[in-house]
Specification:
heterodimer, A: globular, B: 215 residues, three-stranded antiparallel sheet, elongated
């Protein structure tokens, strides 16, 4: 299997330059890419045990889109544009979480229903908690795969590591998750 | 066919990541000859299926919650904001050009001083981004409000959970930093480094980041 990452810095730089010139088709392409921001933030939120509710996520999505465009001139083509956007999402997400932790929570009489887990979602909560415990690059691979719905090749391109590394991280993550969720008997060698 | 622990794990990884199918001859041999292999594979596949289902539900919930976010309009707004900022910077740059000229003249008259990377940076840029060496001078260029300061933060590149800086310090109003050998030791490798601009009330008003690693 080809283990290279598909990344064309010239194409990404050209896109950024065309967006800056207000080229209509480039803006449309950039818009399609920025539509992923919500997914990235949603996956990040799931990985961290959902510190933000869905309303916070919608607000943050708007903020991050603006931040990315404001910073567009900083993209230097040293890595894939999608990876650069992903890092901004991660930074902004953590900043939003820290801001929220510092803000006293008002006593609300209208909690958003969408965020209240359904009774049958006990297993889901357990899995999300377990992913949070897995942590690190393994949890990142798990959430990018299942919560953002990326292929191993897409994850590799975004994080600028070979697909084989992502698969190993992913498997280690599954392995840890299994240990947390389903303690098992070992498999015997033969 | 014999299977040691590392071979078993390699086979399980290959099946779980889709590199091999369950009908693969070697996988089938392991299923039939390694005690517990089939059960372990079924458990892992069940876990992957659970993750698929939970992930799909989460994506749907996020998509519904953010469906009303007007990305097209935001892109327009974001580009307008960017253009306004650039115009302001250009206006400021003209007045700064005179000061810069004085600086360049001073540099020519006093050849003992060292050239500053700052002079080569565009607006909103930082150095290094990519490979750096022990001799590299760190530099950044972004607006700082009157009375404000820069803060430098260094993150492990694989700190994908918390983005907690392993080291940070106030750089005051400096726009360059030459780390000592001891300070270089403190820098994670590879790293993400960030320059945060804080106003006089310590509020974060701007930031810029780059990835870098030692040569």
């Amino acid at each position: 299997m080809d283990d290279r990452n598909e990344f064309d810095p010239e194409a990404d730089l050209a896109l950024v330059a065309a967006v800056a010139r207000r080229d209509a088709s480039a803006i449309e392409q950039m818009t399609r890419r920025l539509e992923r921001v919500a997914k990235i933030l949603g996956a990040q939120n799931a990985r961290m045990g959902r510190p933000l509710d869905l309303h916070d996520l919608a607000d943050l999505t708007q903020d991050v889109v603006i931040v990315v465009l404001r910073k567009l001139d900083e993209y230097g083509g040293r890595g894939p544009l999608d990876g650069w956007i992903y890092r901004i999402c991660c930074f902004e997400f953590m900043n939003a979480v820290r801001r929220k932790q510092r803000t006293p929570r008002p006593v609300a009489d209208t909690e958003p229903l969408a965020d209240v887990p359904a009774p049958e979602s006990g297993e889901r909560e357990r899995v999300l908690l377990a992913i949070e415990r897995v942590g690190g690059v393994e949890a990142e691979a798990l959430t990018l795969k299942h919560f953002e719905g990326l292929t191993f090749e897409e994850i590799a391109a975004r994080l600028e590591v070979p697909p084989s590394t992502i698969k190993t991280r992913y498997y280690r993550g599954i392995h840890k998750l299994e240990a947390i969720l389903r303690p098992r008997k070992g498999v015997e060698s033969s | 066919m014999t299977f040691d622990e590392s071979k078993i794990e390699a086979l399980l990884e290959a099946v779980v990541t889709g590199e091999r199918s369950e009908s693969d001859a070697e996988v089938q041999a392991a299923v039939h000859s390694v005690p517990g292999f089939a059960e372990r594979l079924a458990t892992l596949r069940g876990l992957v299926a659970d993750l698929d289902a939970i992930g799909a539900d989460e994506r749907l919930a996020v998509a519904e919650a953010t469906a009303s976010v007007p990305i097209e309009a935001l892109v327009e707004r974001g580009l307008d904001a960017r253009d306004r900022t650039r115009s302001r910077r250009r206006a400021i740059s003209w007045s700064a050009a005179a000061a810069l000229l004085v600086g360049v003249v001073s540099f020519v008259w006093w050849p003992g001083s060292q050239p500053d990377v700052y002079l080569d940076l565009r607006d909103r840029e930082m150095h290094p981004a990519g490979i750096y060496s022990a001799a590299t001078e760190f530099a950044w260029r972004l607006d700082r409000p009157v009375g404000g300061r820069y803060e430098l933060r260094f993150y492990r590149e694989d700190d994908v959970d918390r983005f907690e800086p392993v080291w940070r310090f106030d750089a005051g109003d400096a726009t360059t930093w030459k780390p000592t050998p001891q300070q270089l030791e403190r820098l994670p490798n590879p790293m993400l480094w960030e320059v945060v601009v804080r106003d006089v009330d310590d509020r974060r008003v701007d930031d810029i980041f780059a990835r870098a690693h030692r040569d």
